[in-house]
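seq as requested:
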Amino acid sequence: MIIDAHAHLMPMSELFSYRSMLQTSNGHQGYETAHVISDELIAKSAKRNVELMDQVGTDFQFLSPRPFMLMHSNPNVRDVVAWARLNNDCIARTAKLYPNRFRGVAALPQAAKEPLAFCFEELDRAIDDLGFIGVLLNPDPGEGTGVVPPLGDPYWYPLWEKLIEMDVPALVHAAGCCGRETYDEHFATEESLAITSIARERVFERYPQLKLIISHGGGAIPYQFGRWKAFGLRRNQNYEKHGLPTYEPFEDTLKRFYFDTCLHYKPSLELLFNLVGPDRCLFGTERPGSGSATDPETDQQMDDIAPIINSVASLTEADKRMILEENAKSVFSRFQP
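struct tokens:
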């Protein structure tokens, strides 16, 4: 079995039309969403996803909303909630049509200026009522405005405790942005900051059962590994001089995270596997997404990642099974094929 742990709901123009209405009407049109997307549109979107999966031999996709569209920094929090609920409902309806192909990973209505407990009602609904198996977590719901602290801050502790209590993993995936970069550039930046912030503040010492999957292979961190290893060594040596408890080596902290394989490039995947081990990597493609382009050197779609993984000489057959299937089943413990 091949399980794609990082995939998104196929876009529908009607869905995004509703988003525009939310942003422009300021609640004047109401927040009833049941009428927005027809069964026919859901079926058409789901069929397109299944066809793409069949082209590359994927058995299951764990679907979450398109992150850059989640409007977390929108000042009207009712809009944020309505939009997250509608996306989650569309995913639930998609999974109901194809129960042997899809599972849901929920959007959280992370309103930038609200405490994280604001998300819990929708988190409970998605897991308990809709049968979702994980959540999508934006590490910067302020979307470049600087109003939300990084993931190592106590601001996030209530969510870590809630996820552990429910045994639910979070796919850490940045969303929209208001800064200088595009949302695609913002992804790699914020996912890198997610790792360094959690490592610096020793979050896993407080919450060792926390299951965080960092999207896009960990952003820039594997490539910049030596820099953070050196920083950790300097800090440890300074603590030792003063008789204080030292931090664990950065490479050990890195192996407390999970990572997807959404990198589209064999040398990058090899680096990731060598750094964290195949037991910390989950097959993820984001197909269709930013990698949906034809590689001129191979004439293959760059988000067809399974053949790349299968071509890595350092991986055993058992390693490949872990990456393509078994790790997803372990991390997403609520998943039942």
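The CA atoms of residues 75 and 111 lie 8 Å apart.
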